Amino acid sequence: MTARQGFIGQSVVRREDARFLTGRGQYTDDISLQNQSYGVFLRSPHAHAKITSLSTAAAAKAPGVLGIFTGEHFKAVGGLPCGWLINNIDGSPMKEPRHPILADGKVRYVGDRVALVVAETVEQAKAAAALIEVDYDVLPAVIDIASANTAPAAVHDEAADNRCYLWQIGDKDGTDAAFKTAAHVSTLTYHNNRLVPNAIEPRAANAFWNPSSDEYTLYVANQNPHVERLLMCAFVLGIPEHKMRVVAPDVGGGFGSKIFLYGEETALVWASKQIKRPIKWTAERSESFLSDAHGRDHLTTAELALDKDGKFIGFRVNTTANLGAYLSTFASAVPTILYATLLAGQYTTPKICCTVNAVFTNTAPVDAYRGAGRPEATFAVERIVETAARELGIDPAELRRRNFIHEFPYATPVGLTYDTGDYDATLNRALELSDAANFESRRAASAAKGLKRGIGYSCYIEACGIAPSSVAGALGARAGLFEAGEVRVHPTGKVTVFTGSHSHGQGHETTFAQVVADKLGIPLDDIMIEHGDTAKVLFGMGTYGSRSLAVGGTAIVKALDKVIAKGKKIAAHLMEAADTDVVFEDGQFKVAGTDKMVPFAQVSLTAYVPHNFPHDKLEPGLNENAFYDPSNFTYPAGSYICEVEVDPATGVVRVDRFTACDDFGNVINPMIVEGQVHGGLAQGIGQALLENCVYDPESGQLLTGSFMDYAMPRADDFPHLVVETVKGTPCTHNPLGVKGCGEAGAIGSPPAVINAICHALGVKDVPMPASPHNVWKAIKASR
Amino acid sequence: MPTLTLTVNGTSVSREVAPQTLLSEFIREDLRLTGTHVGCDTSQCGACTVHVNGRAVKSCCMLATQAAGAQLTTIEGVAAADGAMHPMQAAFNQCHGLQCGFCTPGMVMSAIDLVTHHDCSSEAKIREGLEGNLCRCTGYQNIVKAVTQAAAATKAMA
Fold first, then answer.
1. Are the Cβ atoms of B41 and A285 closer than 8 angstroms?
2. Could you tell me if A721 and B141 are in contact, meaning their C-beta atoms sit under 8 angstroms apart?
3. Alpha-carbon distance A119 to nearest alpha carbon in chain B (angstroms)
4. What is d(CA A306, CA B123) in angstroms, rounded to the nearest whole number?
5. pTM of full prediction above 0.95
6. Where do the domains of chain A lie?
7. Do the Cβ atoms of A718 and B130 come within 8 Å?
8. Other CB atoms within 10 A of residue A269 CB
9. At A461, is the secondary structure helix, strand, or coil?
C-alpha cells in the first residue's frame, strides 16, 4: 500500500494518553448506574469438598440485602463452555465436565464460587455473605500434577484418572527411530512455573436489565466483548443475542486473563433481571489471585537427538499440563494447538513428536496468559538446544546457526508453514548489540568481585495473527477467528473506524489511525477509532494472540479499499471521467494524466448530499465494512541474549544486560512496538526470576494469594533493556506485512535467563523461578 | 457520621463520612474522582497514590478522616488550570510511559513526589524510587525514561 503521508513507520505519540494521564479514563469500576447495587461472591475455603447443606436464611434478613443466589438458581442454565475440542490419541473426545456458574453440590478449588449476595452497598453484601451457613464434607484434594492420574481422589466423577485428554502430534515412530541413530541425546525435565496474570485493574463487571426493552447491558473488563456476548447468550443463559449489549470500556490490562467468559459476570447478568437493579462487582486483589484463570504450569521432559555434526534429527517432548478444576474458555487449546505446533522453533529438526497429558486438579482454572503455549514451547526448545550446546562444547549461537531454517515457505513436522523469516539476521544483530564478543572479559571482571557471570541465548518463534478459521476448525476450534472492521465516512470527510479488536494498552487508537490516515490521506485528527461495544461495532473476535493489527488491521484495510473504490466511482461521475481512469493519491481523487481532481471530503459530501450522483450505479452514503479471515498464521521471530551475575554466597541473580532483537515484519509505530516488547520482557524475566503461584500440596490453599506473597516484578528488578526491531521480513499474506509484537517478549525471554544462570554456575538446570533459594540449592547440588 | 473538611484540588470540600472509610474510597465513591485507582488490598501496587499536603501517600493506607484539614491533590488536579499538562504528564506521553493507563495516575503522583523531594541523579535511584508502584504493561523502561526527562526539566526550572 502507499504511505504517502508517512504516518506508517513513525513513532506517533499516543492519542489515547491524555485521558489516562488526567484521570479521565473510564474503567468498569468507574461506571456507576442509577439505582446501583453491589454484588459479592461467597467463595469456597476448601480445595475439594461436598456441600452438605447451605442456608441463606440468616443472610437474607441482613440489612440492605436485595437477593442471594446459589447453584440451585443456575441448575437450569448451561455451564461455561470451552471453545476448543481436543481429541485423545484414540480419537475419543476430551472430557468436558460441567463448569457451573455457581457451585452445584461440590466445590473444586479454593475460591470456587458458592453464592452471589446482592445488597445496597458492598459492605452490606460482605456482611451478609458472612452469615451464609455452609456445611462442607471436605474431600482429599488433587494438587500435584505429576501424580494427578493416579491420585486417590477425582476432581470430576466422569474423569476418574483426572485426565481431560491424552493428545499427540507428530511422527512418533519416526522420532523414536531418529533417537536410535543419534550421536548425542540431551534430556531435561522441568516445571514451567504457574503464573498469575495480575493485570493491575482487577476483573470487574456491572450488569443491568432494562425492564422497558427487556434488554441487558453488561459493562465488563474484557478483551473480546462480542465473544463474551456470544458465549453468554448462546451457550449459557439463552438470552437472545440482540437483547444483550456488552461494553468493554477502558480495560486496565488483560494479558489473556480477560479473554474468558467467567461465572461472575454471567451470574450478575442473570441476577440483574431477578432484582431489577444494576449490579456491580469488582474483584479485590486477593479474589483475583484466587479466581482469575492462571497461566503455564507444565511438567515436561524434553529430549533432543543430534547427529555427529550437531544437526538436530529428532525432538521428543512429553508434557503434563495442569488445566485446573474446570475447563476455562480456551484452556484445552493452550497446551496443544498453541504449544506443540511451535516445537520446531527456528530449526530444521525433521522428526518431532509431542504427547500431552492434560489433567484436572483442585486449583483455579488455567488458561491463556501472555504467549499462551508459545512461551512453554520456546522454553522446551531453547533450553534443550542450549543444554546440547553446552554438553557438546559447541558455541550455542553456532549450534543454532547450523540448524536454522533458511528456505521459505517451510512446512514444519508439527503442522505449521512458516511463510518467511531470517533467523541469522536477528541472531547476528543481537550478538552485536549485546557485545557478546567481549563476554569473557566481563566474566573475568565479575569473577574478580567473587561473582559468577553467565550468558544465555534464546531464538524464539511464535505463531500470531490467530487464525485461519478453516485451519483452526480442523484443529478443534469451535469458533471462527476472523476479524471485522467498518469505516464510516461522515459527510464532512471525518472518519469513524469501528474495529472488533479491543485495546487495553496496545495503542490501537493511535496505530490504527496511522494506517487510516495514510490510506485516506487525511489528518489523524479527522479519525476516531471505536472499539469495545457490541452496540457500536458490527462484530469482532477481540484481542489476544498478538492478532489485532495482523487480523483486525487488515479488516480495516479491506474496508478502506472498498471506501476508496466507491469514492472513485463518485469522483468519476463528478469529473465526467471513466471509473477506470480515476486514481486516489494524497487524499485526492484524480483523473490520471490530467490536472482534474476532487478532494476526499468533496466526494464524501457528494455521497451524503447526492444531488449530482450516479444513482443508476450507486447507492448514496460512504460506509463500508469488511471481514478478514487470514490465510495463514504470522511468524514473528527473534533472538534474545541475557547476561547475569550470580552471587554464589547468596544465590541472588542480577540481570546485568538483556538484548532483544525482533523481526515483526513491517512496523506501524516503532515506539509502541518497543513498549510492547519491554512489557513482555518484564513478564518473561519475571517468570524466570520472581513469579511463582504456589498451592499447598496437601490442603490446596493458595499460598501466594497477594502482592505480599507473589513476587511481582518492580522497576528495580531490571537493567535498561536493549530492544531493537530489525528491518525484517514482512509477512507475505497480509497487506500491511505485519506479524504482531504483543507476546514476543514473554515468549522469548525465560529460557535466555535460565540459560544464562546455568552457564554462570556450570549446572545443567535451575528451576523457575530462579529465586535465591532455588539458585542456592542448585549451587549446593552441584558441589 | 463525622464531617470531614479538606481542600481537594484547590477547592474546599465538606462531607459526612463514616469513620471506617478509607481515603481511597472517599475519593472514588464520595467525591467521584475516579482517576485514583485501587489495584490491590495490601498497599502494594500504588495505583491509589495521591498527594496529601504535598507528599505522595497511598490513599488506601489512610482513613479519610485522617485527611481533615489537609490539602489533597489527585490526578485530576495535577494539570494547570488551563488544561496544560504537568511536565510529568507530558513526559509520560512523550516517552510512552503508559499503556493500559490503570497504574498511571498513581505512577504520575509518585513520580512527581520523587523528582520534587528525592535524588533522581541516576537511573538506579529512579528505579528504586518507583519501587512502590506496580506496572504490568510497560516493563517500567519508558516510565523510567519519562521520570528522567521530567526530573531534568524540573531541575532546569529550579
1. yes
2. yes
3. 16
4. 45
5. yes
6. 17-24+482-628, 31-139+201-252+258-291, 298-467+632-782
7. no
8. 26
9. strand
